[in-house]
Amino acid sequence: MSSTFPALPLDEVELRPGRPPVLRAESTGDAPRWAAGHREALRAVVAEHGCVLVRGLELRDVAGAGAVFGRLSTELMAEREAFAPRRTYADGVYSSAQWPPNQPMCMHHEQSYTLEFPGLMLFACLAAPDQGGATGVADAATVLEELPTELTERFEREGWLLTRSYNDEIGSSLVEAFGTDERGAVESYCRANAIDFAWQPDGTLRTRQRRSAVLRHPVTGRRCWFNQVAFLNEWTLAPEVREYLVEVYGADGLPFNTRFGGGDPIGEDVVRLLNEVYETNTAREPWQTGDLMIVDNLRTAHSREPFEGPRDVLVAMADPVRPSDCSPTFEVTVR
């Protein structure tokens, strides 16, 4: 740690029920340098609590936020298999996913369906919304403990199945998800990442990928409910949105949906239960312009609540982790 900065008063991390841990920092006018000087201390807070909201850095622009992301991470990652478009500001620095502001993005673990997911998520609020829009967080081990044992045991046996249908109207396009729309390159990526694929007569692509729903944290060994079963399921969509998508694309052609790993549909009651347990365990704090949030992506799920007014939150995915290093409940076969 740089001797320029005093040690962070870790005992002054604010811990209040229903809120994420908050650490207040004195602005020095050089947030990247401050972040570099306190990198290990901040990562220690995240290791202890799963996340931390740093208030007072006065982050105001992409360059400053991106530099902070780089100082705090080991490696910034490029997004692959995106479920919604993002704007790319710089290598590894993105906008929030483009999602209707009046619709919530329920709890999930970023890229939990990939074979290399971010171990760390970084968020920087350049402009807070007028109302709502908090990035909620929930402890994945606690969520797992509070779900019915019969349900979690089934997911541990079977895993979960993500189905996707790519088009140019809803969700991510092929280019946004795979970096290319060249068929051979897309097929090679799918084979290398254990994704079953099928081209449709109209030229669109449908995919299926099976993943473990429960992983062990590679450092603490705690079992975590780690997936996007609820978030990407049709029953989490607003009823009018779901009805529209089913009418336009058909029940088997939804942009994304989830099933039990064996292929059985997941009922509306199960999705409702998952979201209720998440909500019971959600901690939230309204964004203030200039805030930074650091999240352990395996231990801590995150969400985005509906909002009004402009909201500008930058995102970085960092410190890649492979599910194979987290005691998956079954082995993924790469062809």
- How many beta-strand segments? 18
CATH architecture of the largest domain: 4-Layer Sandwich
Overall outline: globular
What is the arithmetic mean of pLDDT?
Answer: 94
Cofactor: Fe(2+)
InterPro entries: AlphaKG_dependent_hydroxylases, TauD-like_sf, TauD/TfdA-like
GO molecular function: dioxygenase activity
Pfam families: TauD
Could you please describe the fold and organization of this structure?
The structure is a single chain. The longest helix has 13 residues, at about 270-280. The chain has two domains: about 10-140 and about 285-320, Double-stranded beta-helix (4-Layer Sandwich), CATH 3.60.130; about 140-275, Double-stranded beta-helix (4-Layer Sandwich). Helix 1 runs parallel beside helix 3. It is an alpha+beta fold and about 325 residues long. Helix content is about 25%, strand content about 25%. The strands form five sheets. The chain has a seven-stranded mixed sheet, with helices on one face.
List its salient traits:
Double-stranded beta-helix, TauD/TfdA family dioxygenase, 18 strands, dioxygenase, AlphaKG_dependent_hydroxylases, iron, 335 residues, alpha+beta
